[in-house]
Design goal:
- The protein has 321 residues and is an alpha/beta fold.
- It has one domain: Rossmann fold (3-Layer(aba) Sandwich), CATH 3.40.50.
- It has 11 helices and 8 strands.
- The protein has an 8-stranded mixed beta sheet with strand order 3-2-1-4-5-6-7-8, sandwiched between helices.
- β1, α1 and β2 form a beta-alpha-beta unit.
- α1 packs across α2.
- It is globular and about 50 Å long.
- The N terminus and C terminus are likely disordered.
Amino acid sequence: MPSSKTPLPDLTGRTVVVTGTTSGLGLALSGALTSAGARVLMTVRDLDRGAAALERVRDGSKGTGHVETVLLDLADLKSVRAAAADIRDRTDDHVDVLINNAAVSLGPHDRTRDGFELQIGTNHLGPAALTWLLMPAIRAAGTPGRPSRVVTTSSLGHRTGGLDLTDLHWERRRYSPTLAYGASKLANLLFTAELDRRLRQAGDPVLSVAAHPGLTKSELLENALARGGTWRSRLLRLPDRITSQPVSVGILPQLAAAFGPVHGADYLGPTRLFETRGPAGPARRSATAADPVLAGQLWAATAAATNVVPDPAGVGSEVTA
């Protein structure tokens, strides 16, 4: 398992897609993977910021890897479809690892371009659609001896609340940024588990794994404040700066999920101070995050909301694009 003292294996010939790469965890992941020799496709929402991030990765890379940017806005399903098609075309349908890293948190009540609540839309619905649309390329890259992987990034915040599938977009309830964020991160774990179940059922050479970074300087709070964050997010700013670990350590669970010895549906995170910091290892999920019935219901609700055909489809997933 990768750690601060154990470098990544040689990733020459491996293709990795990382979402949310202009700062924080995604930028650090892109640098680490490129230095290990991988071809890294960095997804970005803004081409100017993406160009700056690309140069930072190239300047800091010590390996022979290749890095490029892909335009993707997870809060816009039209953009998700276009990005998936672009990635499949560029890679000739060969993606060894997809790291669903991008996220938003704790901002005011807002909507995606498709009308979804911003946090569930950006943190779950967009990544789920991207995963399904890229699955032919991910499946093609895997072999029984070396399965390809989907790594979905959750959070300690998944424990803060439940998931109301009858009101995913907070149209009836009073909006809570904290609970909405928790619900989106809970959805990440449920999606990971259901994807793993269906992959195993289909016999596909793909592992679905989850990870969380603990308390890491990921710039999520700063981005929330830039969008007009709530007083709670402002209160969290100082302790976040004081207690957070650097991104070079925070990315270790994601790297371990992507290239370490894992099983399908594993969940990795920091192993010290209640999973807030330290080297990567097994993480605890809430009882709700381990509910297979809720996971199946979320899968169906996600397919209906995004109008993307789930892959693996399985029984009861007949949604047309």
